[in-house]
Amino acid sequence: MAAWNTEDIPDLSGRVAVVTGANSGIGYATARELARRGATVVLACRSERRGTEAGDRMAAEVPGADVTFARLDLADLASVREFAAGLPYDRLDLLVNNAGVMALPYGTTADGFEQQFGINHLGHFALAGLLLPALLRTPGARVITVSSWMHAVSNVDVTDLNSERRYHRWLAYGRSKTANLLFTHELSRRLAAQGSNVVAAAAHPGYADTNLQTAGPRMTGRRLTETLMRTGNRFFARSAPSGALPTLYAATAPGVRPDSFTGPPLVGVSPAPARRAPWTVDDRMGRLLWEASERLTGVVYDVPKA
Q: How high is the pLDDT of residue 103?
């Protein structure tokens, strides 16, 4: 892959993009660059205050930026449905499933799902399914899902998706990120079977400086761990704009292949093909997770089985 940076993003005027978790970190950097290239960008965030503040800051940084805030709580399927129903556009060129949580203590979403699986996977699964009609009628649309290299710690356990038998915060995080890649794999297969030109692909930021690393320790009062995480971010992590490059590449570069996985290189910053665990391209596991996700969320995709 040739060297690539944000200057290579094409003109996006007339395009509509939804970026989840766009109020900070990777999501903010992604949304800002899409807006800089002329896209109409919806900042899909849980907090109205943080979302509107992010929109104001983005408008100041990118004069003329067409950005709007819309509330989306991925931990509540009612909120996901409300967001999808209220999106005021006939087309949708880009859905970036970016928002997520990492290594939190055990907790459940409004619908009773383990929160890492519920937010990182099920919320985005439901969102993409509800927005699929708009994506299907938009030529060249893409669904980009942000996973993590931490997917390599574990495959999903379809017999215990909500970690009810055993919970370990990092294992649950890894499984949710595997779920992101299995979702991309299965969606790509189903879109191909329909003959659709919608591209489903995935990306990961590597080790990037965001608030993901400190949220878990802060919630449990582990101040030393939180301090160590902040220190690691400061001295060893990529910046959020650098971490956003793989997502932006997958979202905008020409020729991005369905079910591809883009990440940062070992050296430098230009996005590169990322390695992925073999279980993330397992057709059988992809189907099982898909069927379970439809059952749990009540969102059934209008695309055939591949």
A: 93
